[in-house]
Amino acid sequence: VGHAKPLRCVKPIPHQVTTNSTHSHICPEQCPCLTDVSPPGSGVFCETSIDGIGTCWPKSGAGQLVSRPCPEMFYGVKYNTTNNVYRKCLANGTWAQKGNYSMCKAILNEEKKGKMHYQIAVIINFLGHCISMVALLVAFFLFLCLRSIRCLRNIIHWNLITAFILRNATWFIVQLTMSPEVHESNVIWCRLVTASFNYFHSTNFFWMFGEGCYLHTAIVLTYSTDKLRKWMFICIGWCIPFPIIVAWAIGKLYYDNEKCWFGKQPGVYTDYIYQGPMILVLVINFIFLFNIVRILMTKLRASTTSETIQYRKAVKATLVLLPLLGITYMLFFVNPGEDEISQIVFIYFNSFLESFQGFFVSVFYCFLNSEVRSAVRKRFHRWQEQHSIRARMTQAMSIPTSPSRVSFHSIKQSTSL
């Protein structure tokens, strides 16, 4: 066909004809797209034809395998027109009974694949958040019960874990309550839920910033950590994010007050009110981490004091968790592109990292913390000792004090004498 843009005749009605039917001797008035088709010349050729699906087959020479674009729609289902359908013009000048439509893929199938991957990603998200929540709660109660390890460093770990618990809890609330109807209604409580989620999401970053501040102060500035106070870090972790989220909520209320404050309108940048400070503390934390690693590699490499060893372990945990937190957050600003594979990888990668953050925080700051493990071991040994002492006492009380037993009757007889 001479034209680049394929035209299509759809005279046959799909439910009245089959894919095997052929309509020969088509007049140009019936099929205008065939008027520009050049005849194959002398010899045997197949006449112009429309098959039962509605695909136009131009006049073609005998023995030719003719290709045409897949139909745009059939029985209400859209098809991918970038692929082709093939049909053979036989040696006797007749068309093959069937065209080869195997390359024509319904767009509906592609949509189903996208939905399937999205549903799997949702399952990964829920599973990851559940595992993270269990690990975070175990870590929280370990820090709560083990009073012997309550130094400032571990209190900061404890608050970071608490921030992740609250963020995961609000994530579950968002997932279970935010239906499309609620989004459209934009009621007050759903906006408060969104604000709470963003607040606790921000506290994760600011408590990670608190971790970086503590290590930077102790290692790089060589400032005595005894002079650092708990209230300073509480202000950083819990207080500073609050006015930021209040300012964001006011901006949303006046400029983007729809869909429970999720998403954003084109040209409205109110989300940067809280995203900007989060990116800032993330960048500062990376600078802190660079300085800390530099000092540890040069000045404190030979030091073997218990405090330095604890700092090294805390730095190792931060080296893993800070990039993890940063990469996950930066993925929100990345466009995966139009490629299907890129989008699938992006969905799975983002779902896994975001949902398992709390689990990794629990592992590195609690379960692998040597102080926590030592305190748990001591508590367990103490419990074992108490249990064994109690068992020995019970056993001793059950054994008679004398091998000979004296009856009440014999005692009564001896006293009467």
From TrEMBL:
Tell me the Pfam families matching this sequence.
7tm_2, HRM
Keyword check for Glycoprotein, yes or no: yes
**Alphabetically ordered keywords of this record:** Cell membrane, Disulfide bond, G-protein coupled receptor, Glycoprotein, Membrane, Receptor, Signal, Transducer, Transmembrane, Transmembrane helix
Return the InterPro entries for the record.
GPCR_2, GPCR_2-like_7TM, GPCR_2_CRF1_rcpt, GPCR_2_CRF_rcpt, GPCR_2_extracell_dom_sf, GPCR_2_extracellular_dom, GPCR_2_secretin-like, GPCR_2_secretin-like_CS
- From what organism does this protein derive? Nothobranchius furzeri (Turquoise killifish)
The gene designation is CRHR1
Which GO biological-process labels does this protein carry? adenylate cyclase-activating G protein-coupled receptor signaling pathway; cell surface receptor signaling pathway
To which protein family does this belong?
Answer: Belongs to the G-protein coupled receptor 2 family.
Domain of life per record: Eukaryota
Cellular location(s): Cell membrane
Q: Where are the transmembrane segments?
A: 118-144, 156-174, 205-224, 231-250, 272-293, 314-334, 346-368
Signal peptide residues are none
- Which protein is depicted? Corticotropin-releasing factor receptor 1
What CDD domains has UniProt attached to this entry? 7tmB1_CRF-R1
Question: Which SUPFAM superfamilies would you find in this protein's record?
Answer: Family A G protein-coupled receptor-like (SSF81321), Hormone receptor domain (SSF111418)
Q: How does it sit in the membrane?
A: Multi-pass membrane protein
Q: Main subcellular localization, coarse class?
A: membrane
Q: Which molecular function term from Gene Ontology is one that the record holds? A: G protein-coupled peptide receptor activity
What GO cellular component term, any one, is given? neuron projection
Q: List residues of the G-protein coupled receptors family 2 profile domain.
A: 32-108, 121-369
